[in-house]
Design a protein that fits this description.
Layout lengths: L1 E2 L8 E4 L11 E3 L6 H22 L9
Parallel strand pairs: 1-2, 2-3
Length: about 70
């Protein structure tokens, strides 16, 4: 889930305002349209979040649990 408002269950925040209470890894402060680098950073973070959620949901598939 992502939103432009901070809530406890939000994975990612895209906003034009700095939100100090949001982990900087999950906060994207864009004052204008994002650059290619910013989009790449967003995609990278989305991949990490996706992997973490997958591993949490399917712990038996996580090789680190062996």
């Amino acid at each position: 889930m992502f939103t432009n408002r901070f809530e406890d269950n939000v994975d990612l925040v895209i906003s034009d305002a700095m939100l100090a209470e949001v982990d900087s890894r999950n906060r994207f402060d864009w004052q204008q349209l994002p650059t290619i680098k910013q989009i790449a950073q967003l995609r990278s973070r989305l991949s990490v979040i996706k992997r973490q959620k997958f591993e949490a949901r399917f712990k038996e598939l996580n090789p680190e649990n062996d």
